[in-house]
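Appendix B: complex inputs.
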Amino acid sequence: MSRLPNAPYPQTASEWFALYRSGRVDAKTDLKWREWLAADPAHELAYEECERAWELSLDVGGSQGVSNALRQLDQQLAKRPGGVLGGKAPRPRVWAWLAAAAGLGAVSVCTFWLIHRTSAEVADYATAVGEQRTVTLSDQSTITLNTDTSLRVTYSQATRRIDLQRGEALFGVAKNAARPFEVHALGGVAEAVGTQYDVRIDGDHADVAVLEGVVAVESSGATRQSVAAGQSVSYARGGAVSAPQALNTTAIRGWEQQRIVISDVPLSEALHEYNRYSKLPIVLGSPELGDRHVNGVFHIGDEDAFLGALEQGLHVKISRTATQIMIEAR
Amino acid sequence: MTFAALRFLMHQPPQPPDPSSSDSDEAGRQAHESVGGQQGLVDGSDSPESSRHAYVTLLFNKYRAAILRHLSRLVPHEDAAELAQETYYRLLRHPEIVPIEGMARALLFQTAANLARDYRRRRASHRSDQHVELTDDELAQEHLGPEAFLAEQQVRAILEQAIAQMPHETRTVFLLHRFRDLSYPQIAQVTRLSSRTVARKMAEALAHLSAALGQTT
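Resulting structure:
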């Protein structure tokens, strides 16, 4: 695909490396690569440099510059307007529509288009902070997107693929053994035939929680981990999948009903959870408060109730600025 | 490696490679031969398991020196050999190994790098079982020692800067492929570039990054 039949073979290490990243190399081209590699020891070393640069670059994903750029890209992808069906219409360059879309507020937008060659159905869905929505797909499977979430649906004849780019979503999968349902997140994949499960990206790791049925989870090419109803696993990008743990389903059942369930966790953890839904971050001015345990069920969007409960229950002082909400010891 | 030699090897119990006895002469000689030969490894008379085992063993032996170099840059040198061995066993069980040597090599290197990451994470969590919250940087510093830690910080800073300096289109293609796992056709779809251009931009990105890294070593 990347090397057209008449195109010359690559000349440099980076060209060869990029060609192999396409995943489409035939035996003849592979032979040419071996010849190139063997022709000069410098070729081998230059190729190794590409392999090293490729692997090391993964560790930069969490840096501020790269994560800002990725966030921007995610938003731009989610806001992409339709109108490119069939690719016959004039194709505005992505940069042009990205610029045009940049002015819009953070509203959820979904876009549909067809990839002609594979006749796959592709759609993007996103929610803003504090927003939730449920979509029903063409096979009657449902996806409920939690706050600040972005994902892509690619339905082809062979597979039903979801790419979770950010946030958390609950999947109700319509049974179809011939067409597995795969949720890809942070380089790993959670696959099911018909079930209900939740996938969440939280910082550098992804959690997969199974409510019904069985889901196979795989990351970094290691053996698949089978996860049954009532269990959850987690993995980091490129890392192995953890052993299954018993799952407390109340938090997931809660967000599904627009409620944040906080059950006996330290305040620091509760705020991490609550801040996913909060437009202004709630921060701790007194670090020692972070260890106090808290409990409660709060309606998503009813921030005053949450802060009021903290104020009364923990005897803290709450102050607001334009950029944050501060909790301090009295 | 000729096909006949391969058949011979398959009738011997395959020797687990010993990554610690790195032999650069042998590696150099082998580098001029292919693992699977032009024929690839498809041969109906042998069980897929044994031919796969032979293939992985040959592949590993051929690239043993390169894998050790690769790992030595990701974990402390003394641990690289052990991880190379583990890489070999992982690859034996890997379902996606294909008789296209360049793709098999990519899988080999990626598996090694993933193991290195797991290993470091394991080491880090082992040292912080006191429920004290440490940042990744603090864990890395404790594990690697100050010098290696600084070197690693420097490498990260260089890569981050190199990514920032890429031309806009090149950077977009690179970020979508590296961090969003989009394939070239998917990137072509969302950027309105041709698949061929996407491959060219990826090559540019890789050349840019490895040139930036090359200046440090």
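Chain A touches chain B through 74 residues (CB under 8 Å).
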